[in-house]
Structure formats: structure tokens, C-alpha cells
Amino acid sequence: MANLVSIAKTVGSNRIVPTISIPYPLGDPNTPIEEQWKLRKHRVEVAVGALAADVEEATILDVKI
Description:
Layout: H1 5-10, E1 15-16, H2 33-52, E2 59-60
Parallel strand pairs: 1-2
């Protein structure tokens, strides 16, 4: 999981799950708590699923709900 995708690619990460922002990578404190939990759960599920994915090169995973 990375909020700076370009840097993650530069350092050689092969599975990249984009996050929201630097101070709040998995949410936005200005949104309702239910929305934050939904977003966090989805991003973590994508990240865990990425561990099982076969990749040959740097792959940025789709995190759209």
C-alpha cells in the first residue's frame, strides 16, 4: 500500500495498492465513519488479494469500489 505510487514503482515494488493521502492513507477524517470503514476494508481486501496475485512487473491494483 502506497500513497506515492511513482516512488513505489521507482524502488521496485511489484504490487502497488494506492492509498488516499500521506496523513490519512486509508481514509479521510472529514467523511462519515461508516464511509471510512467501508473504504479501509476495501483497500485492505485488495492488498491481501494482491499477495496471491501472480505478477511479472510492477502492477498498480485497481481500488475503485
